[in-house]
Design brief:
This protein is of the alpha/beta class and 897 residues long.
C-alpha cells in the first residue's frame, strides 16, 4: 500500500490496487464468532447473462455501505454473493448463438445442449461479479454461490419433494401465461402490461331459437374458433327471453349455449360476451362455474391448431392419459398453421364476406407482455406444475403483520399485503432445458408419477422400471426463493445456518416485491419455521436528469463502468447515496457526478495539507492533553455527527447520514478548522504540536466515518497517515464519546464563527476585496469569547484590529447583527465612498435601461402573442431579477450617503 500521497487525486491509479490488497488480506471473509453479534446480507443474485448497470450499482452500493458499517461496528458481518442461472434469459442467449451457427436445440439434444450451456456459464457467468468488484463491494467471495450449484440444487429438490408430499405442489391443467417466443409459461408476476392501440371488432352471432343477432365485441377475433358459449347477465332484461337458448358460432357453424354469468356486465358494451375458456383467464373462470368444455385452438408456438395437433390429442385420450381440465384440440381447417396474427386477418375477412362484422372501433388497452422478450402473452390452459399458495401465504402475511419482518419504508407493506392476500397458485414449470429439472418421473407402465429427490429405480406405484423424467424445469424464482437459507447450507443444519440465519437485511428494489421478496418469505417460513430476514430495505430506481426512466429507446442509460473509469468508484457511490431516501427514486446527472468527484478532491487536498504539517514532525494519532476552544469545537462537533450518523444508519437513512458526514468534512473541517489552526501551525512549540495532533485525529475519524460510503479514497489516505492496524475497514466506527462532549466551548466557537460569517457576507455584498482591512467593533454580552477570538477575526474576517465592549456609537458604520453580537465596521475603512457611489450609480443606470427593454417587450402584445411561451417566461424572470438588483443597489447607495 501507498506510504505517501500523490499530488493529485487520480482514483484510476489506486482503486484496483486497493481492492487487490483487500482480497489478499482476506478482509471480506467472515466466520461464525460467538463473541460477536451476526449481521447477514444475502446479495440479490444478478443474472449470469447480465452486465453491470446503474440499478446494480445502486443496489450493491447500499448493501456495501451497510455491511462495511456493521463490520466496523464490531459485528460478524457476512455478505453472501452469488448469481442466478436465469433460465429464460440464458437459454435465449444460447439458442440465439446456436441459430447463427445453423444449429437448433433439437439438433443437439438435451444432454449436448446442457453441456454447451455450462460451457457458456463458465465463459460468461462470472462477468458481472468481476464488474461488481470495480464498485468496491466487500462481499465474502469465498462463499460465492450459484443457484444451480450442488448445494442449491439439493435444496431445490428437497423443497419440491416436501411440498409435493404435503399436497402443496400439484400438476394440472390451468390457465397460465404463455410466451410463444420463449415457448414457456411464465408467472403472473412476470407479465408486464403495456398500453397498446387496438380495436374492438363487433361480431354478430345468430341465435338458433329466435333468429336474432347478438352483437359481441372482442379485441381478439381469432379466439372465436375456441368459443364454447356466450354469456349474458341473468338480471339483464334485454336478454331474459334468451335464457337456455343457443347461438351458432360463425365460421364453424357450431351450436354453443347462451349461459348466465356475472362476468357479463350489463353496463359495458352490449352486455354480451363470448366465452373462450382455453384462451382467456376470465373466460376460464366462467367455464369452470358453468361447466363448459375447454377448446384449444392455438399451438404453443403461436399458430392455429390443425390435424397433427388433433391426432396428438386423440392419442393421449386413447391411452387414458388426459388429465383433469385437459383442453380439447380442434382442427382449425383453413386457418390451421397460420400465426395468430395471420388468422386474425383471415377471420375478419371471412366475417366481412358473411356480413357478420358489424363495426370496428379503435380501442386503447393494456396488453400483457413477457418481461424478458416483450412478446404479447397468450393466455392458455396448459398442463403445468403449481404451488398451492393459500396455505403458504397465511403465515407469510402474519410474519409481516406481527413485525417479524418489517419493510423500510413501511408503506410497501401495503403492496406486499395486497399481493399476498390476492395471490393465485404459482405456476412453477417452465418449458426449458436450462434450469432445475423437475424431479418427477412418469411410469410408462401405469401412467402414474413418482416424485423423488434422486432418480428412482422403479415406479413407487406399480414397480415398473420404464420411467421418464419430466422434461420441464422449474421457474428460476423457485430456486432464488430459497436463497437466504440454501446459501448457508440448508437442508443441512450447518454451523453457518445456525449462526447467520435468519439473515438481517434484504436490500432490493420495489419492483421485485412480488417476484422475489414475498416468495422468499413464504418459502423460508415453510422450510425453516422462521422469516428469512428481519428487515426489507426498499430502494427506488435511478432516473436521468429529467426524471425519466433509463432505457435503450431513450438513449439515456448510464454505464457504471464508464463512470468509474472517468470519475472513480467513490464518486459514483457517493452520488448514488447522496439524497437517497428509502423507497424513492434518485436522479443521475453529469453535474452531480462532477460535484461528487469534487468532494473527493477536496478531501484529498485537505489530507495533503495535513501531511504538509505533520510529515516533518513526530505526531501521534491521539489527542493532546491541552485543547483550545477551536479544538474542543471540532471534536465536539465530530462527536455529535458520529452520534447522529449512527442513529441515521440504524434507521436506514443512508442519504441523511452521508450528508452529515459531507457537511462536517467540507464545512467544519476543511473550510473552518484547517483555517482556524493555520496561525498556530506557523508557530513553534506545544500549541503547534497540539494542533497537528487534533488535525490528524479528526482526519482519522473522518476517514472512518466516510469509509462505508467511499471505501477507496478513505483506505488510500488512511494508509498514509500514522495508524494502528492493517486496514481502515477493520477500524472501529466512530461513536459518541462523553469525554469529547464540549458544549460550552462549541457554543463559544459558534458565536465567533457566526460573526465572521456575517462579516464576510456583508463585505461580499459590498464588493469589498479581502485585501482591504478594516477595524471591527464588537458589542456583546460575551466579551471573553470575542476577546479570545480576536486572532480569528484578523485572519478570517480581514480585520485590521478588534475592539470588544458592551456597546459602541460609531457614525457612518456598517452594522452587522448576529444572535450574540452587534458588529460595527467604519464605512470609510471598507470602501472609497466617492468611487463606490460612482460605480453603483453607473451599474444602476445600466440596470434601469435593461429593465426598460424587458418591460417594453412584456407590454408589447405582438411579442406576447407570437413569441414561444418559454421565451416570454424567461423575459418575465429577467425583469423580476433586474427589479431585485435595482432595489439592492438603491439600498447600497442610500447606505453610503
Amino acid at each position: 500500500m501507498a506510504k505517501e500521497m500523490a499530488k493529485s487525486y487520480k482514483p484510476s491509479e489506486f482503486e484496483d490496487k486497493i481492492y487487490d490488497f483487500w482480497l489478499k488480506g482476506n478482509y471480506f471473509h467472515t466466520e461464525a464468532d460467538p463473541d460477536k453479534k451476526p449481521y447477514t446480507i444475502v446479495m440479490p443474485p444478478p443474472n449470469i447473462t447480465g452486465q453491470l448497470h446503474i440499478g446494480h450499482a445502486l443496489d450493491e452500493t447500499l448493501q456495501d455501505i451497510l455491511i462495511r458499517y456493521k463490520r466496523m461496528s464490531g459485528y460478524a458481518a457476512l455478505w453472501v454473493p452469488g448469481t442466478d442461472h436465469a433460465s429464460i434469459a440464458t437459454e435465449a442467449k444460447i439458442v440465439e448463438a446456436m441459430r447463427k451457427e445453423g444449429v437448433s436445440k433439437d439438433d443437439l439434444g438435451r444432454e449436448k445442449f446442457l453441456e454447451r450451456a455450462w460451457e457458456w456459464k463458465r465463459e460468461y457467468g462470472g462477468r458481472i461479479t468481476r464488474q461488481l468488484r470495480k464498485l468496491g463491494v466487500s462481499c465474502d467471495w469465498e462463499r460465492e454461490r450459484f443457484t444451480m450449484d450442488d448445494g442449491c440444487s439439493e435444496a431445490v429438490r428437497e423443497v419440491f419433494v416436501k411440498l409435493y408430499e404435503d399436497g402443496k405442489i400439484y400438476r394440472g391443467n390451468r390457465m397460465v401465461n404463455w410466451c410463444p417466443h420463449c415457448n414457456t409459461s411464465i408467472s403472473d408476476a412476470e407479465v408486464e402490461y403495456e398500453e397498446q392501440q387496438g380495436h374492438f371488432w363487433h361480431i354478430l352471432y345468430p341465435v338458433k331459437e329466435t333468429g336474432e343477432m347478438l352483437e359481441i365485441a372482442t379485441t381478439r377475433p381469432e379466439t372465436m374458433l375456441g368459443d364454447t358459449a356466450v354469456a349474458i347477465n341473468s338480471e339483464d332484461e334485454r336478454y331474459k327471453h334468451l335464457h337456455g337458448c343457443h347461438v351458432i358460432l360463425p365460421l364453424l357453424n357450431k351450436e354453443i349455449p347462451i349461459v348466465c354469468d356475472e362476468h357479463a356486465d350489463m353496463e359495458k358494451g352490449t352486455g354480451v360476451v363470448k366465452i373462450t375458456p382455453a384462451h382467456d383467464p376470465n373466460d376460464y373462470e366462467v367455464g369452470q362455474r358453468c361447466s363448459l368444455p375447454i377448446v384449444r385452438v392455438f399451438t404453443y408456438d403461436g399458430h392455429m391448431t390443425g390435424k397433427a395437433d388433433v391426432e396428438a390429442y386423440e392419442e393421449l385420450k386413447a391411452k387414458g392419459r388426459l388429465a383433469e381440465n385437459e383442453p380439447e384440440v380442434i382442427d382449425c381447417g383453413k386457418y390451421a398453421g397460420m400465426t395468430t396474427a395471420e388468422a386474425r386477418e383471415a377471420v375478419l375477412a371471412d366475417l366481412t364476406d358473411l356480413g357478420l362484422l358489424k363495426q370496428v372501433k379503435p380501442h386503447t388497452h393494456d396488453v400483457g407482455t413477457c418481461y424478458r422478450c416483450h412478446t404479447t402473452i397468450e393466455p392458455m390452459v396448459s398442463k403445468q406444475w403449481f404451488v398451492r399458495m393459500e396455505p403458504l401465504a397465511k403465515p407469510a402475511i402474519k410474519a409481516v403483520r406481527e413485525g417479524e419482518t418489517k419493510f423500510i419504508p413501511e408503506r410497501f407493506e401495503k403492496v406486499y399485503f395486497h399481493w399476498m392476500e390476492n395471490i393465485k397458485d404459482w405456476c412453477i414449470s417452465r418449458q426449458l432445458w436450462w434450469g432445475h429439472r423437475i424431479p418427477a418421473y412418469y411410469c410408462e407402465d401405469c401412467g402414474d408419477v413418482t416424485v423423488a429427490k434422486d432418480a428412482p429405480d422403479c415406479c413407487c406405484h406399480c414397480g415398473g422400471t420404464h420411467l421418464t423424467q419430466d422434461e420441464d424445469t422449474l421457474d428460476t424464482w423457485f430456486s432464488s426463493a430459497l436463497w437466504p437459507f440454501s446459501t448457508l447450507g440448508w437442508p443441512e443444519n450447518t454451523e453457518d445456518l445456525k449462526y447467520f440465519y435468519p439473515t438481517s437485511t434484504l436490500v432490493t428494489g420495489y419492483d421485485i416485491i412480488f417476484f422475489w421478496v414475498a416468495r422468499m418469505i413464504f418459502s423460508a417460513i415453510e422450510q425453516t419455521g422462521k422469516a428469512p430476514f428481519d428487515t426489507v430495505f426498499i430502494h427506488g430506481i435511478v432516473r436521468d436528469e429529467q426524471g425519466r426512466k433509463m432505457s435503450k429507446s431513450l438513449g439515456n442509460g448510464v454505464d457504471p463502468l464508464e463512470v468509474i473509469e472517468k470519475y472513480g468508484a467513490d464518486a459514483l457511490r457517493f452520488l448514488l447515496v447522496t439524497g437517497n431516501s428509502p423507497g424513492n427514486d434518485i436522479r443521475y446527472s453529469e453535474k452531480r457526478i462532477e460535484a461528487c468527484s469534487g468532494f473527493a478532491n477536496k478531501l484529498w487536498n485537505a489530507s495533503r495539507y495535513v501531511h504538509m504539517n505533520i510529515d516533518d514532525h513526530d505526531v501521534k494519532n491521539e489527542l493532546p492533553s491541552v485543547l483550545t476552544t477551536e479544538d474542543k469545537w471540532i471534536l465536539s462537533t465530530l462527536n455529535s455527527v458520529a452520534k447522529e450518523v449512527n442513529e441515521n444508519l440504524g434507521k436506514f437513512e443512508l442519504g441523511i447520514a452521508v450528508q452529515k458526514v459531507y457537511e462536517f468534512i467540507w464545512d467544519c473541517y476543511c473550510d473552518w478548522y484547517i483555517e482556524l489552526t493555520k496561525a498556530r501551525l506557523q508557530s513553534d512549540g506545544e500549541d503547534a504540536q497540539n494542533a497537528r495532533q487534533v488535525l490528524l485525529y479528526v482526519l482519522d475519524q473522518i476517514l472512518r466515518l466516510l469509509h462505508p460510503f467511499m471505501p477507496y479514497i478513505t483506505e488510500e489516505i488512511w494508509q498514509t497517515i500514522p495508524h494502528e492496524g492493517e486496514t481502515v475497514m477493520l477500524c472501529a466506527y466512530p461513536t459518541f464519546k462523553p469525554e469529547l462532549d464540549f458544549p460550552e466551548a462549541a457554543q463559544e466557537m459558534q458565536r465567533i464563527m457566526n460573526a465572521i460569517r456575517a462579516i464576510r457576507n456583508r463585505r461580499n455584498e459590498m464588493n469589498v476585496p479581502p485585501s482591504r482591512k478594516a477595524k471591527i467593533y464588537v458589542a456583546t454580552k460575551f466579551p471573553n469569547t470575542f476577546e479570545d477570538g480576536q486572532a480569528f477575526f484578523v485572519k478570517l474576517a480581514s480585520a485590521s484590529g478588534v475592539e470588544v465592549g458592551d456597546s459602541f456609537d460609531i457614525d457612518g458604520a456598517v452594522t452587522i447583527v448576529t444572535p450574540d453580537a452587534k458588529v460595527y465596521i467604519p464605512m470609510d475603512e471598507l470602501v472609497d465612498k466617492e468611487a463606490e457611489l460612482k460605480r453603483l450609480n453607473k451599474e444602476l443606470e445600466q440596470l434601469k435601461k435593461r429593465l426598460a427593454q424587458s418591460e417594453g417587450k412584456l407590454n408589447n402584445q405582438g411579442f406576447i402573442s407570437k413569441a414561444p411561451a418559454a421565451v416570454v417566461e424567461n423575459v418575465r424572470k429577467q425583469a423580476e431579477k433586474e427589479r431585485e438588483q435595482i432595489s439592492l443597489i438603491t439600498a447600497a447607495i442610500d447606505a453610503l450617503k
